[in-house]
Design goal:
Blueprint: H1 7-10, H2 29-56, E1 64-70, H3 75-87, E2 90-96, H4 100-110, E3 116-118, H5 123-130, H6 154-158
Parallel strand pairs: 1-2, 1-3
Pfam family, one: UPF0261_C
InterPro entries: Tobamovirus_resist_UPF0261 (IPR051353), UPF0261_C (IPR056778), UPF0261_N (IPR044122)
């Protein structure tokens, strides 16, 4: 399935699926190279994750986490808002509102990753309404409201 449409299987996760080039019907030099590349990628990801976990799990105080949507026309407003949030000890995660960005943000909101959300860019809703190509689906803005813990203002991010 790696060569087909795998979105129904992995959604908006960060799952990596290497294209196998040839079918797995006996080993040959091309398939061996593909499998070696996949193995090397896994090793690097595991080492990187271990390094990140060691840094993130340090006893240092964690910053508040804020999600934000951005798209070309909203970039100046998002840049200004991000500057304010960062001055107030927030780590800002910017999602490009191009369908997959909104879906990824909503998934992370539901997972409880963020302390707040600044959804400045709602172009994905317009795409859904008029049949555009950058829709994040009909559930955009609905599912994330289920996680009431993210509905906070800047004054709450400061505390």
């Amino acid at each position: 399935m790696a060569s087909g449409d795998i979105k129904p299987y992995i959604g908006c996760s960060d799952t990596s699926v290497p294209y196998n080039v040839v079918d797995i019907a006996g080993l040959n030099s091309l398939l061996r190279q593909v499998l070696e590349n996949a193995t090397a990628a896994i090793v690097v990801m595991v080492k990187s994750r271990a390094s990140i976990c060691a840094t993130v799990d340090s006893p240092k105080r964690q910053k508040k986490k804020a999600a934000m949507t951005m798209f070309g026309i909203t970039t100046p407003a998002c840049d200004a808002a991000r500057a304010v949030l960062e001055k107030n000890d927030c780590e800002v995660y910017v999602f490009h509102a191009a369908g997959s960005g909104g879906m990824a943000m909503e998934k992370l909101i539901l997972d409880g990753v963020f302390d707040g959300v600044l959804d400045l860019t709602t172009t994905e809703l317009a795409d859904e309404a008029v049949g555009g190509i950058l829709s994040a689906g009909s559930e955009r803005l609905k599912r994330s409201s289920e996680n009431r813990g993210t509905n906070i203002g800047l004054h709450q991010l400061r505390t």
